[in-house]
Design brief:
Helix 3 links the parallel strand 3 and strand 4. The chain has one domain: TIM Barrel. It is built from 11 helices and 8 strands. It is globular, with a radius of gyration of 17 Å. By secondary structure, it is of the alpha/beta class. The model has no long low-confidence stretch (mean pLDDT 97). Strands 1-2-3-4-5-6-7-8 form an 8-stranded parallel β-barrel, surrounded by 6 helices. The longest helix has 19 residues. It binds phosphoenolpyruvate (PEP). The site of phosphoenolpyruvate has 14 residues, from strand 8.
């Protein structure tokens, strides 16, 4: 039985004061939730503040990215060690915005996933097709290629720790959501591919989140699908009440 996992990707939003306010508002709203894993992913500058506020709570801390390198001459990068030092347990890797605007590749994703696993950080690995790719019938080719290449550094006995987020690019921040059937179809294909790579038992244990304009009004139906084990939430995670409603829909 996979425990549902809801993570909030705050993207490049919130100063430290706003981040503190948001997490302080969220904490009491979800304090009684035990059957859903919860994480928030603030910007790097807010990690320390949020880390202090969530200590002892049921909210975990995720970074929005992680360096593949351990230390040294990598200007602008943040290492796994540094993330652990500030209390991160998770890192989002290969988000479509990283791929689209910052040239992130499947090869880079695989290296970042390796760095995360080597340091006890759970990678949330994002995959998803663009609108053009969907419309030209390439959804499965693209997503499954991202899975194979992006997870190429994962050993079989590590697979169960890895979280995959299927996020169709055309649904991110657009207000357009994949229908539950569309999402389930891709999630099932991802799980079948994971079974091919890591074996059926590992694939059954791996969580596959859906992301793309998830909100309180569509969460229940999406999360009710057999292979949808949670959500990676962008916009709606910036309001404590909205995010809490999505978390409760996963119960
Ligand atoms: C995301 O950033 O991962 C995301 C899914 O964003 P939104 O929920 O705003 O579409």
């Amino acid at each position: 039985m996979r425990k549902p996992f809801i993570a909030g990707n705050w993207k490049m939003n919130n100063t430290r004061a706003a981040a503190r306010e948001l997490v302080a508002a969220l904490k009491p709203l979800v304090a009684d939730v035990k059957d859903v894993e919860i994480a928030v992913a603030p910007t790097f500058t807010c990690l320390q503040d949020v880390s202090e506020l969530i200590k002892g709570s049921n909210i975990e801390l995720s970074a929005q990215n992680i360096s593949y390198a351990a230390s040294g001459a990598y200007t602008g990068e943040i290492s796994a060690d540094m993330l652990k030092d500030v209390g991160c347990t998770h890192a989002i890797i290969g988000h479509s915005e990283r791929r689209q605007y910052f040239g992130e590749t499947d090869e880079g994703v695989a290296k970042r996933v390796r760095a995360a696993l080597d340091n006890g950080i759970i990678p949330i690995v994002c995959v998803g097709e663009s609108l053009a790719e969907r419309e030209s019938g390439k959804t499965f080719d693209v997503v499954l290629r991202q899975i194979v290449n992006g997870l190429s550094s994962v050993k079989n006995d590590e697979a169960a720790r890895v979280v995959v987020a299927y996020e169709p690019v055309w649904a991110i921040g657009t207000g357009k959501t994949a229908t539950p059937d569309q999402a389930q179809e891709v999630h099932a294909a991802i799980r079948a591919k994971l079974a091919e790579i890591f074996g059926a038992d590992n694939a059954e244990a791996m969580r596959i989140q859906y992301g793309g304009s998830v909100k309180a009004s569509n969460a229940k139906e999406l999360l009710g699908q057999k292979d949808i084990d949670g959500a990676l939430v962008g916009g709606a995670s910036l309001k404590a009440a909205d995010f809490a409603e999505i978390i409760k829909a996963a119960r």
